[in-house]
Target: ABC transporter ATP-binding protein
Amino acid sequence: MENAPQYVIEMLHITKEFPGIRANDDITLQLRKGEIHALLGENGAGKSTLMSILFGMYQPDAGEIRKDGKPVTIQNPNDATALGIGMVHQHFKLIEVFTVLDNIILGAEDTKLGFLKKKEARRKVMDLSQRYGLKIDLDAKVEDITVGMQQRVEILKMLYRDNEILIFDEPTAVLTPQEIDELMQIMKSLAAEGKSILFISHKLNEIMTVSDRITVLRKGKYIGTVETKDTDKQALSNMMVGRPVQLEVNKSEAKPGEVVLQVKELRVPSKLHKKDAVQGVSFSVRAGEIVCLAGIDGNGQSELIYGLTGLEKCSGGSITLCGEEISHTSIRKRLKNISHIPEDRHKHGLVLDFTLEQNMVLQRFQEPKFQKFGFIKQDAVRSYAEVLIDQYDVRSGQGPITVARSMSGGNQQKAIIAREVDRDKPLIVAVQPTRGLDVGAIEYIHSQLVAERDRGKAILLVSLELDEVMSLSDRILVLYEGEIVGELDPKKTNIQELGLYMAGAKRAEKGGGTE
Model:
């Protein structure tokens, strides 16, 4: 064992350019066997690009990759799989109409005389799911399961292929606190079995909890590698952003005005089962306050927002916005008074093949400012987009003409927030607005939301980040299995109590206060 190579993977002097941007600029990353190595950096720092090179999705312009000390060429993901490298992508690569089992074995099918050996495959997946505590319904269709469950499918896909080097790209961006804890445990047990893990994240809490070493990238350059036990969150955020970052939210007391949104006995059907996903929910949001819907993913938050914004039809109850009943009006009519930052930025937030400037005017192109006689005023659209890009620090290779698909997830998110806040509507519905954002961007978005609140906007926030729920909201409503089980004051509660409500272990009495 004396001369065994110290590193299972080495990426040496990797450089990669895209039009208008050097995503990786001479980066070196070394992964030891059996360690959890975190890759930390702002949105657009080049983390995903670097991992995509290791997984064979891009070819580097310069530099080399070694496995167990020997240089290797990875032309495509199949080469990576053959080398035992697996990856869970930030935006999952699953086929929605297939079952969980079919997604797991897709591309690695075991056949006999051309027939699929599904029994053996099922047994192997069941064994893996039990061994690593990844409980999942193998016969459910992917489109019907929560994002947390989809992530388990991605992890099982890697394990099914017997991968030894596991890349997790922002794995917790879509998970609930409980699921995050479970994932951390899973990662630790995988590392204990000798698997080597590369973990991309910009959530400092998680990195401190789970990693052994941390490599920091900033604007495509390598900043340094540190041992987790020798550093802290403030030092890491300085390395990552290049300046001290405010990790707490600064805000004054809320001064709620009149009711902007009134929801009464609202019911929204579920796509998954017979009963409604939202069961007779009533609440109000006033001008000048941030009301947060907290809960574990899959307890009806998404359906409630779909019902409010018109993406789903409600099966009962009423929604009154600015004094007008809107439960049966069209989406365009509703959006006259709602800014909506949706939970799925790809499905409902952006048209990925449009440019950034086109995405910025999606709901406004018919305004006189942007069109004349039905023709779009290109110059007006461009200068408008440039102002927002500058104001929100949306980083992209080619400014307003960048295709949305080519931007990093965090910058896509910033673009949506810029567009929606600037539409200046009385109600802002923000669903996980900081999902997938780094500390610098989160600090900015939080300050924007608080500023909008202070300008008299009513803000309905849906968040799975408990720290965000506690620090940003003025009132917290907890949703459990489609019902509101508690209304809490963030100043008088704590994360433990909030967690009990979210898990359904504690609930307020109907009609009475929370005891």
Q: What stands out?
A: Residues 146 and 298 are 6 Å apart (CA to CA).
